[in-house]
Amino acid sequence: MEISIIAEKLFSLGGFPVTNSFFVAVLVAVLLAITVIFFSRHPKEIPRGVQNVVESIFEGLLSFIESITNDRKQARDFFPLVATIFLFVLFSNWSGLLPGAGTIGLNETNAGQVSMVPFLRGPAADLNMTVALSLVAVISVQVFGILALGIRGYGSKFIVAPWKKPYVIGTVVGLLELIGEFAKILSFSFRLFGNVFAGEVLLTVMLTLVPYLVPLPFLLLETFVGVVQAAVFSLLTIVFLKMAVTSHAEEAH
Amino acid sequence: MDSVQAVVANADNAKFFSAAIAIAAAALGPGLGIGYLVSKGLESIGRNPEAHSKIQTSMILGIAFTEAIAIYALVVALMILFK
Q1: Pick the residue with more confidence: B3 or A62?
Q2: Which CATH number characterizes residue B38's domain?
Q3: Domain residue spans in chain A?
Q4: B57 vs A68: CB contact, 8 Å cut-off?
Q5: Which one of A169, A209, B22, B38 is at 20 to 30 Å from A151 when CA atoms are compared?
Q6: Strands A113-118 and A9-13
Q7: How far is B8 from chain A (nearest CA, A)?
Q8: Domain residues for B42?
Q9: Cβ contact A190–B68 (<8 Å)
């Protein structure tokens, strides 16, 4: 039973190491894009088949976002980013549960030790992918905030002059909020990575102990955790977006 | 058979102890925290069933934050074990 916290490298593309989780992430992204683009080619007024499914998913996500922002226009502004994050994280979590992920691979010798390198691995089980995704989310929050409030308006949340209203405490709180933004990157990435990687370890251990029937509840648990972590990531992104776009004056009521 | 002291003194074996203690100690706080959260959330839903979905959303948000703390400790424990 081998568990590697680092995603194993499959091959190099001109100096860029392609790991198994990167490979699956690209697969998931390409499949998602193809599904949505291809089957929405000539949209019919009365949707049928795959177009119907895609539309219902989008509608569900839009109403989910609207239930939190309580503002239709903001929900439509946030929709592309949040829906992409949700669908990508959801399908990448589920792809790590497919039969063959983590089990089919090559035996490689590394410095005298034989280890197995699986071909497929859940993308979120690689810290690189979760850090990248959380960087995208947090930087987009800053960009949305600057677009809505302007640089001065948005900067006044973090850099508060000590001679203005809350006096020195305002400055300290502003600095803490700035540090909090960096802490958000860490917490986003570790939350997703920890949940998915721990799930993989759990499944590996269960399958090693009793390969038949007993791992079923754990597979169900992992499916559920995949959905919940995708929902939590996008929920937190929506909340931070909403907070970034609201100016101080609107908040005080 | 190594004596217990010899086993503990060997640096490699300290990995197992430290990983177990890390995650065991870290499971306490968020466990209690999530328990409080959910109990207050259920109580307020009971008092005001109309606001059910709003309360539920905020509750899940809070649970995500508290659970993340246990996950940080889990990641540290896994790093100790597998590095």
Answers
A1: A62
A2: 1.20.20.10
A3: 9-251
A4: yes
A5: A169
A6: unpaired
A7: 24
A8: 4-82
A9: yes
